[in-house]
Amino acid sequence: MTVENNPGFSSRQALPPHYRRFYNRFIRFSCVMIFFALIAGILFQESTRKVSFDSIAPGIHWEAVYHLALLHGHAFLIGVLLPLAILVMLHLVLQLGGKTLSAKTLHWGGLLYQLGAISAILLMLYKGYHYVLSVRMGTLDFAFIHHSFFAGQEILRHVIYGLSHVAMSVGLGIFAVAIWRALPKPSDELSDG
Hints:
Elements lengths: L2 E2 L12 H32 L9 H38 L4 E2 L1 H34 L5 H7 L5 H29 L3 H7 L1
Antiparallel strand pairs: 1-2
Helix pairs in contact: 1-2, 1-3, 2-3, 3-5
């Protein structure tokens, strides 16, 4: 996580080329995730209509649709809001006269975050449909549904969930540390005023 000095960045100057590439990639990612989150909301509404309150008790109904219900909000948070927050922080650091993050930091932080975010959201999609379809097929034993997730391979499930969350967390950690280190020191801010 190295940072480079960036003397005198102003909003009128062009962004460093590696920032432009990173901004472009993360904004495109956020746009795709907006559409995915909207589609996830529609999928939730349409998919859960078949799991009616008439055929099962309300508590079982909620248990069946809960994981799919979380997908819409998580897709917005993980896929849209956090990437945009990272972009805003990067830009504000430049506006405050802070250091420029290296291309390597942006690459690895972004790559790890995006891979972790995509895999976490796809896992939520899979888990949501696993529960909804199991209940629609008549299985109301949630312990059985839970244990049949990933064809009963508990270790595989833990490894895949662990890798996705670790990748996303390490990516965010890279950005948090690098952005913190790139900020101008408080003593520098006082001397400017």
